[in-house]
């Protein structure tokens, strides 16, 4: 293998692989990227952790075809530091890779390309086009609520559910839930919802962002599902992720109907208040108390070791008074993610879930379970 | 207590204690006390004093269950509950009065609820200080209510014998008697120097108590840290199959006690003691706190599988701990889960049956062989007369 490629193009390809390769060294090959020089001046750069794989195609001058696998991190670090705009990659004996750029020369240890796991290849994927902007917005409204508790593996991803002309994305960690909806006519050929894994979502996000930052006029991304995998394709890049096998809980059941007590709040004002007051919350739980009474919302925190904080927010509320505890993080996560100036907080009682949504936008609903006070 | 579960015992002298040759009396009914039987007396001696008494072995699980329930009632009135024994506690209701009325009102309410919910009669004493409250309670036993008016503690204590005071045992009592100090009033009025001579120093604290000065606060016990059940088999058992029925029965028992105390816990611990007396524990944390016997059993069974079961086992036990306190995050799906809702309804129905027919009256068939339940067969409320 021998080829000449633009350094920025190679850096972009390697950046994409960094999130996917395994940091742990249980299987050294999984910390490697596969470089394949193909006929017609193409370099294929692939990375996989066996659950999520990405593969990109890049223009270059191929002097000799061939393939080798090298440490993704080391190659990326080298490429980022190269002095010239062009680099030559050449496979030497014993799977060494020689990188030359300007007067700098590197020789790094590689592994035979044959050792690299076969990437999933699907021939008959029924793709549907989605707007990267819409999909990215929906992922950003939900992914923060994904559970990080590995014992609840069915919550370690975002539920993707096409339903009657709309797409729904739902994430929950068992304490709070985020639901984003968007009218999308695309037919994904799914009979029921599927669960996209957290790591795959992070890569999908990067890919969508890349697509939006690209030069294309109307960027388009295609999404398809086959054999318990999701395949995302944009021109010259393919991302494949294995879906989480498991049953996503019945989220519809935990979304309260109409809250008895509804209070409208300025989104940024509420966000800043919560950030300030939660400075004195206990470290782990971020507990704040909301004390709602006609015309006034008091946000309070106390910590036996530190002290207490209080802030009053005037509100147009005329209902029954209520005192309820929340993990401030669950509220601020939502307030940071949603668009618009105002949010509506709907509450029932101190042991029932609260609902937070942007005013005048039914595309998003957050459900947050309170803390005992 | 035993008279409560078995109506045929009512009105008869009942003695609970170790029934072997070396046992001592744990508790005696008021009928038995008339024969001079009291707790901590060797059972053999009690048998001589009261040959016609009914002698029973203690059932600690059942007492624990009732104790949880009684403390649950206490905690409805104040979080400041300092346990003294299985059924006795100090309650600091200073800040509960706005909600629940005066100390006397609260005492009456507690007595009524305990009787309604457990069938037991309890005595209560209300006073400004712990010492006087305890003495007032003792004076009211078995079913009384003694209220010491505000500012009246010293006057209330004065006529009582000094032996009522904490820290006054036989030796101190005799020493005080040599100085003609017989009542608490005498002690309160005694010359400190003379007192010091009689007692060899340390009389000051005692005198302050006698004057009703007891600055000790009610120190709430961090609520029960765990609720568990364990049983030693009559003969060692070998293999998982032989242990599971007992585990199932224990899980149900623990669930019932949790529900009685209004607690839910996240951590399930299984204890196995082998024939050689070495014991091991295995524990796990559930995603959400539970009070359901079935959920406890499922977790316990999974933990049991992690233990070496190729050796004979003499004891198994299950305990639930990790009770969420203030500031604990509630679970979104726990309440809405249809299975959980059905389990809750089932447990409530089972608890009602246990309440009426004795604990464990209805139990899973898989646990049916464990622990014959003699007190479950007699319907309650039909007095069987004095036999």
Commentary on this structure:
The complex is a heterodimer of chains A (373) and B (387). Chain A contains six helices and 26 strands. In chain A, strand 16 (221-226) and strand 17 (229-234) form a beta hairpin. Chain A is elongated. Chain A is α+β, with helices and mostly antiparallel strands. Chain A has helices at residues 7-18, 72-81, 132-142, 198-213, 267-277, 328-337; strands spanning 2-6, 32-38, 42-48, 52-59, 61-64, 66-71, 86-91, 97-101, 104-108, 110-111, 128-130, 157-163, 166-172, 176-183, 194-197, 221-226, 229-234, 237-242, 261-266, 287-293, 296-303, 307-314, 322-327, 342-347, 354-358, 364-368. Chain A has a nine-stranded antiparallel β-sheet with strand order 10-6-2-3-4-18-17-16-11. In chain A, strands 15-12-13-14-26-25-24-19 form an eight-stranded antiparallel β-sheet. In chain A, strands 5-1-7-8-9 form a five-stranded antiparallel β-sheet. Chain A folds into three domains: 2-115, DNA Polymerase III, subunit A, domain 2 (DNA Polymerase III, Chain A, domain 2); 127-251, Roll (DNA Polymerase III, Chain A, domain 2), CATH 3.10.150.10; 256-368, DNA Polymerase III, Chain A, domain 2. Chain B has helices at 2-5, 30-33, 43-49, 60-77, 97-100, 103-118, 130-140, 153-157, 170-178, 184-189, 192-199, 203-210, 240-261, 293-304, 332-336, 338-357; strands at 14-17, 25-28, 54-56, 81-83, 89-91, 124-126, 145-147, 226-237, 265-274, 279-290, 313-321. Helix content of chain B is 41%, strand content 17%. Chain B folds into three domains: 2-58, MutS, DNA mismatch repair protein, domain I (3-Layer(aba) Sandwich), CATH 3.40.1170; 126-221, DNA polymerase, domain 1; 226-377, Dna Ligase, domain 1. In chain B, the strands form four sheets. Chain B has a four-stranded antiparallel β-sheet with strand order 8-11-9-10. In chain B, strands 2-1-3 form a three-stranded mixed β-sheet. In chain B, strand 4 and strand 5 form a beta hairpin. In chain B, helix 4 runs antiparallel to helix 6 (103-118) and helix 4 runs parallel beside helix 13. The chains are: A alpha+beta (373), B alpha+beta (387). The interface between A and B is medium-sized, with 25 and 13 residues.
């Amino acid at each position: 293998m021998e080829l000449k490629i633009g350094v920025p193009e190679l850096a972009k390809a390697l950046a994409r692989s960094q999130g996917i390769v395994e940091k742990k060294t249980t299987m050294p090959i999984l910390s490697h990227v596969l470089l394949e020089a193909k006929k017609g001046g193409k370099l294929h750069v692939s990375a996989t952790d066996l659950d999520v794989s990405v593969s990109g195609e890049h223009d270059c001058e191929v002097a000799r075809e061939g393939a080798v696998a090298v440490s993704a991190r080391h190659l990326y670090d080298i490429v980022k530091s190269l002095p010239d705009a062009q680099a030559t990659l050449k496979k030497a004996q014993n799977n060494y890779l020689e990188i030359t750029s300007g007067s700098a020369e590197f020789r790094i240890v590689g592994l035979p390309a044959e050792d690299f796991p076969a990437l999933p290849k699907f021939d008959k994927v029924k793709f549907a086009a989605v707007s990267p902007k819409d999909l990215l917005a929906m992922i950003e409204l939900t992914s923060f609520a994904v559970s990080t508790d590995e014992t609840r593996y069915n919550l370690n991803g975002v539920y993707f559910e096409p339903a009657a002309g709309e797409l729904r994305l739902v994430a929950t960690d068992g304490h709070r839930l985020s639901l984003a909806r968007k009218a999308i006519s695309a037919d994904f050929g799914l009979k029921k919802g599927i669960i996209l894994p957290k790591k795959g979502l992070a890569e999908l996000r990067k890919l969508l962002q890349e697509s939006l930052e690209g030069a294309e006029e109307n960027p388009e991304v295609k999404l398809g599902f086959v054999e318990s995998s999701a395949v995302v394709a944009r021109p010259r890049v393919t991302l494949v992720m294995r879906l989480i096998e498991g049953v996503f809980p019945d989220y519809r059941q935990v979304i309260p109907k109409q809250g008895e007590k509804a209070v409208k709040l300025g989104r940024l004002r509420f966000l800043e208040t919560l950030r300030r007051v939660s400075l004195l919350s206990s470290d782990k739980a971020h507990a704040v108390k909301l004390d709602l009474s006609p015309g006034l919302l008091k946000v309070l925190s106390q910590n036996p070791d530190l002290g207490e904080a209080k802030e009053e927010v005037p509100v147009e509320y005329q209902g029954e008074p209520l005192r309820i505890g929340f993990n401030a993080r669950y509220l601020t996560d939502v307030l940071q993610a949603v668009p618009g100036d105002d949010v509506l907080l709907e509450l029932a009682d101190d042991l029932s879930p609260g609902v937070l949504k942007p005013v005048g936008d039914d595309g998003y609903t957050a459900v947050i379970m309170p803390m005992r006070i | 207590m035993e008279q409560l579960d078995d109506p045929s015992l009512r009105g008869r002298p009942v003695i609970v204690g170790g029934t072997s040759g070396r046992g001592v009396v744990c508790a005696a009914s008021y009928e038995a006390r008339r024969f001079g039987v009291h707790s901590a007396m060797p059972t053999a001696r009690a048998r001589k004093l009261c040959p016609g008494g009914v002698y029973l072995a203690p059932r600690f699980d059942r007492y624990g269950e009732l104790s949880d329930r009684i403390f649950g009632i206490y905690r409805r009135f104040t979080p400041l509950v300092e346990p003294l024994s299985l059924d006795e506690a100090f309650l600091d209701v200073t800040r509960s009065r706005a909600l629940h009325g005066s100390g006397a009102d609260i005492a009456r309410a507690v007595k009524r609820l305990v009787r309604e919910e457990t069938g037991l009669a309890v005595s209560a004493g209300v006073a400004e200080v712990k010492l006087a409250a305890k003495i007032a309670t003792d004076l009211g036993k078995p079913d009384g209510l003694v209220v010491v008016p505000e500012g009246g503690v010293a006057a209330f204590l004065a006529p009582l014998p000094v032996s009522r005071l904490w820290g006054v045992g036989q030796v101190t009592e005799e020493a005080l008697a040599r100085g003609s100090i017989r009542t608490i009033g005498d002690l309160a009025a005694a010359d400190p120097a003379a007192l010091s001579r009689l007692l060899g120093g340390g009389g000051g604290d005692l005198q302050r108590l006698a004057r009703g000065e007891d600055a000790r606060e009610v120190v709430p016990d961090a609520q029960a840290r765990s609720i568990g059940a364990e049983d030693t088999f009559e003969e060692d058992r070998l293999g998982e199959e032989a242990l599971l029925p007992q585990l199932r029965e224990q899980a149900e028992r623990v669930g019932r006690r949790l529900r009685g105390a209004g607690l839910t816990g996240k951590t399930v611990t299984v204890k196995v003691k082998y024939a050689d007396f070495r014991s091991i524990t295995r524990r796990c944390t559930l995603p959400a706190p539970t009070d359901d016997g079935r959920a406890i059993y499922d977790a316990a069974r999974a933990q049991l599988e992690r233990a070496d079961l190729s050796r004979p086992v003499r004891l198994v036990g299950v305990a639930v701990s990790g009770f969420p306190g203030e500031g604990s995050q509630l679970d979104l799906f726990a309440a809405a889960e249809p299975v959980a809702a059905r389990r809750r309804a089932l447990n409530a129905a089972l608890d009602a049956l246990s309440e009426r027919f004795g604990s464990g009256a209805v139990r899973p068939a898989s646990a049916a062989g464990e622990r014959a339940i003699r007190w479950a067969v007699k319907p309650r409320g039909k007095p069987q007369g004095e036999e």
